[in-house]
Structures are given as C-alpha cells and as structure tokens.
Design a protein that fits this description.
Length: about 200
C-alpha cells in the first residue's frame, strides 16, 4: 500500500509540473490567443487572399524541401538511393514552382480533393455508426452527416469554392486555436499559487 500511495503522489505531482510557469505567463497566452482570433477573423474576411497566400507558402515549403533533398543526395553520392533522393528533390522543387506560379489552380484542385475526402469520410462514418451501434454512436453519425453535407456543399460550388475554402479552413483553425489559448490563459490566471496554498 505504501508503494502504491507513493506512486499515486508522484503521478499527482506530474500534473502540477509547469503550472507555476503557466500561472506566471497567463497574459502571454491570452495575448497570443487574441492575436490569433483577430488574424482568424481577418482570414475569414479575406478568404480568397488567405487561400492564395497558403498555396504560395506551401509552394515555398516544397521548394525548400526539394532543394534540401537534392543537396542531401549530392552529399551522399556513394549511397545506392542517390538517384531516388535527387529525383525526389527535383520533383518537390518543380511542383513547388508550379504551385507558386499558379496558386489559384492548385487551390481549386486541392479543394476538389478536400471535398471528395469529406464526402467519402462522411459516408464511411455514417455506415460505421449505423452498422456497429457502439456506445455514443450518434456522435459518429452526426460527424459523418456534417462531413457529408460539407463535402457536398463544397463540391456543388466547385470550382469557385476552390478560391475560398482553404482560406476559410485556415481562418476557422486560427479562431479555434486563439479561443483555446485565451481560455487556457484565463484558467491559468485563476490557478492557485504556492503562496495561496500556504
């Protein structure tokens, strides 16, 4: 019993690690959260610009990754995978330049893939929820229905939806992340300090 109690105490103390730091810096969390909420609202307000900016960013990431992979191939010339590394690096770089050259077409194509993913994922979730009927299956069914409806609505507006969908998704992600940081900061502010415990 003594060993179990010591284990429980040490596990409980693991939850307290960093809480003092979190309490001291709660304002940073709230500030960053508010900034992300503002940026998310701006992204939602200009979703076309955000979509194109995201595509350009992805293109530059691919170019950077491709160049690094090609350089890596030349630093390991004796390796049997030299040509695969080199070709992969060239492919990444070329695709990155293609994305940057025409971010609108890339966004339209990617949006169609997102739409198909949502539709088929929704159908799979609905079928699984209805056939298995496990505990809380209704939530999986609801998730599937929302995915299916979202995918169909994006697909029906395609190719025009390709100009705003990715920007909207990025904006929503920023908003959710920002609000969660604000809530975390507020909760951290209300954490008891060592002085209060004493």
């Amino acid at each position: 019993h003594t060993m179990d109690r010591e284990t429980q105490i040490s596990v409980a103390s693991l939850h307290l690690i960093g809480l003092g730091e979190l309490h001291k810096r709660w304002g940073w969390f709230v500030g960053l959260g508010i900034l992300l909420v503002v940026l998310g609202m701006m992204a939602l307000g200009s979703s076309v610009v955000m979509t194109l900016a995201t595509m350009v960013f992805v293109g530059w990431l691919m170019i950077g990754g491709g160049v690094l992979q090609a350089v890596h191939a030349f630093t390991c010339k004796g390796w049997s995978g030299f040509f695969i590394d080199l070709l992969s690096g060239i492919l990444y770089t070329v695709v990155g330049f293609m994305i940057i050259a025409n971010p609108g077409a890339t966004a339209v194509t990617l949006t169609l893939l997102i739409s198909m993913f949502l539709i088929f994922g929704g159908i799979f979730r609905i079928a699984t929820a209805i056939s298995v009927r496990f505990h809380n299956w209704i939530w999986l069914l609801l998730h599937g229905v929302i995915n299916l409806l979202l995918g169909i609505s994006i697909w029906q507006q395609w190719p025009l939806s390709g100009l705003w969908v990715i920007g909207v998704f990025v904006g929503i992600d920023m908003l959710c992340n920002g609000w969660s940081l604000v809530m975390l900061g507020i909760a951290a502010k209300n954490l008891p300090t060592k002085d209060a415990k004493a």
